[in-house]
Amino acid sequence: MQRTDRISIHTSADRPAHAMARELYEAGPVPTVEFPGGIVVKALTRDAELRAALTDPRFVRGIRHWRAYTEGEIDTEHPIVQFMNVDHMLTANGHDHLRLRKILQPGFTRRPMEALRPIVSAILDELLDDVARAPQPVDLKAALSFPLTVRVLCHLLGLDAQHIPEMGEHIRRAFNQQDETANAAVRTFVTDVLAEKRAAPDDRILSHMLTARDADGAPLSDAELTANAMLLVSAGFETTMGALTNIVRALLEHPEQLAAVRSGATTWGQVVEEGLRYDGPVNTLGWLFATEDVHYPGGEVIRAGDAVLLCFMAANHDPDRHGPAATAFDAVAAHQSHLAFGHGVHHCLGRPLAELELSIALPGIFARFPDLRLAPDQDIPEPSPIMNHPRTLPVLTGPA
Q1: pLDDT of residue 149
Q2: What is the pTM of this model?
Q3: Dihedral sign, CA of 202, 203, 208, 212?
Q4: CB atoms < 10 A from the CB of 57, how many?
C-alpha cells in the first residue's frame, strides 16, 4: 500500500540534519515529502533505490519535466523552484550534459588539482596563524573553513579576493532557501564577473569558459555561460566548507577516532571518506523527474512527471549498505562507497578539489592545535533543506 504521510523537509535546532535523515529513512524507500510553502514531491531515501535512479533512463534532469511545474500547480517564485530552475551541467541530460562536462572537466582533473597543493597549503598556514592569534573561543568555520575554501576557489576560477564577502553571503542565502531574491543576486554577481573577464581575461576557468568550444566548434551560449558559472561559484566552496567544518566537529565529538588517526590505526584519507559518509555537507538535493511510472516493492509508485528529491544523508546512513552501525562515525571500520559526491554520469565534478583541500586542511589543523576542542556553546544548524553544516563552530585552541 502506498504511503500517504508527508515528511516535512526542514532542519532546526530541535531537528538537525541527522534527525531529519532518520525520519526520511524510517518513512520508507519512496516517501512523500513537503517543503515549507507547500511544495510536495516524492523522495528516495535508501542507497539501492537512489543509486538505481541515478543511472535509470526513466529519470531525467530539468524542471521542464515536472508536471506540477508545467501545469501551473506550484508557485514558480518559490525559492526551491527558483533554485532549480536553471539550465546548467547538473540539470542537463544526455548529449547536452556530456558537451558541458567535457568543456568544464579539464579544470578539475587530478593534474591541475595537484598544482593547487602548494597554494592550498600556503593559504592554510596563513589562516592557522590567524586562528592562533584570535581571541578564544574562535569560530573555526568563519575563521578557517570559509576563507580557505573560498580563496582556493577564487584562485581556481580567477575571482578577485574583493568578491569573497559578497559572493559568500549571496550563496549562503540561496542554499538556505528562505530568500526569493538570493538566486537573482547570485546571477547578477556572476553576470558582472563574466563581463569583467571578457574585458580582462586571464588563464583561469571562467576565462576559459568564455573561449571554450565544444566538439562541433560551438561556444557556450550566454545563458549556458551564466548558468554554469553560477554552478561553479555556488557549489565550488559551499560543500567543501561544510565538509571540513563537519569532519572537524565529528573528530572533536569522537576523540577515540581522533586518537585512531593520530596513532596510525586509520588514515586521514579514511577519515575524509567516513566523514563525508557520516556527516556530508549535502543533506538532500533535487531533482530527478520520472518520464514514466516507476513501481517499487510495497506498492510505492513514482508517477510520470513527478519530481524526486535525492536524500543523500539518509542513504548514506542506510544499514543495508553500511551495516548496523551506519549512523555511527567510525573511520577505522570499513564502509561501502558513499553517495556524498553523487553517482553515475552526474557525479560531482569538483570531487578532486574537495578531496585535495580536506586532505591538506584536516591534518594541518590538528597538527597545529593538538589541544583543539569544542567550546561549550555550540550553534544551531543552518536552516537549509539542502545543506548540512552548523552556522558556527566555536572551538578552543589552547591547552585545557
Answers
A1: 94
A2: 0.93
A3: positive
A4: 9
Do 354 and 338 form a contact (C-beta atoms < 8 A)?
Answer: no
Return phi, psi of residue 149, to 5°. Answer: -70, -35
Cβ proximity of 54 and 343 under 8 Å: yes
Q: What is the 3-state secondary structure (H, E, C) of the chain?
A: CCCCCEEECCCCCCCCHHHHHHHHHHCCCCCEEEECCCEEEEEECCHHHHHHHHCCCCEECCHHHCHHHHCCCCCCCCHHHHHHCCCCHHHCCHHHHHHHHHHHHHHHCHHHHHHCHHHHHHHHHHHHHHHHHCCCCEEHHHHHHHHHHHHHHHHHHCCCHHHHHHHHHHHHHHHHCCCCCHHHHHHHHHHHHHHHHHHCCCCCHHHHHHHCECCCCCECCHHHHHHHHHHHHHHHHHHHHHHHHHHHHHHHHCHHHHHHHHHCCCCHHHHHHHHHHHHCCECCEEEEEECCCEECCCCCEECCCCEEEECHHHHHCCHHHHCCCCCCCCCCCCCCCCCCCCCHHHCCCCHHHHHHHHHHHHHHHHHHCCCCEECCCCCCECCCCCECCECCCEEECCCC
CA-nearest of 91, 85, 255, 266 to 177 is 85
pLDDT score of 178 more than 60: no
CA dihedral of residues 279, 280, 282, 285 (deg, nearest 10): -90
Class of domain 6-396: mainly alpha
Which grid coordinates belong to 124?
592554510
Mean pLDDT of 148-171: 81
Exposed / middle / buried, residue 78 (Cβ in 10 Å: 0-12, 13-18, 19+): middle
Residue 3 has pLDDT above 80, yes or no: no
